[in-house]
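Changelog entry: the HIT family protein record was regenerated in this release. Current contents:
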Amino acid sequence: MKDVDCIFCKIANGEIPSATVYEDEDFRVILDLGPATKGHALVLPKEHWANLFELPDEVAQKGILVAKKVAGKLRDALGCDGFNIVQNNGTAAGQTVFHFHIHLIPRYENDQAGISWTPGTLTEEDKKEILSKMDA
Ligand code: 5GP
Ligand code: ZN
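Regenerated C-alpha cells:
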C-alpha cells in the first residue's frame, strides 16, 4: 500500500532521491534533512502506514531489527558516544510526516540536541487510575 501524496512513500520507494545509508526489500534508511545531530537517520518502511498503531506486527518486528542494525553501523562509522531511538505518533507527540518512521539519533558528549523532558511526580491518584484502566 502506497499513498500517492506521501513524500516518505516516494523517498522510500526511490521515486525521490535521498541519502540512503541502508536498504532492503521492506525498508530504506535515509539521512534526515534537518538533523538533530550528525548522522541523524530515519528508518522508513516502503509500505505506507501512518503511525505505530497502524503498523502490522511483522513490519514492526522487522523495523526494530533494521533500527538496531543501522544504529550499530552509524555508531561504528561516526564514533558517537550514545544513541537515541525516537518514534513520534500524532501531532501532539511531534509527528510532522504521517508515514511511520523511526529516528536514529547519534549522540555526542556536549551536543546540543534537546531530547529531554522535565520529570514530574507519579501521584498515588494517577498510579491507581492508570493501573485500574490498564487492568494491570
Ligand atoms: P517527525 O517530526 O514526523 O517525527 O519527523 C519527520 C522528520 O523528517 C524530521 O526530522 C524532518 O527533518 C524529516 N524530513 C521531512 N521531510 C524530509 C525530506 O524530504 N527528506 C528527508 N531526508 N527528511 C525529511
Ligand atoms: Zn507514505
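The chain has a mean pLDDT of 96.
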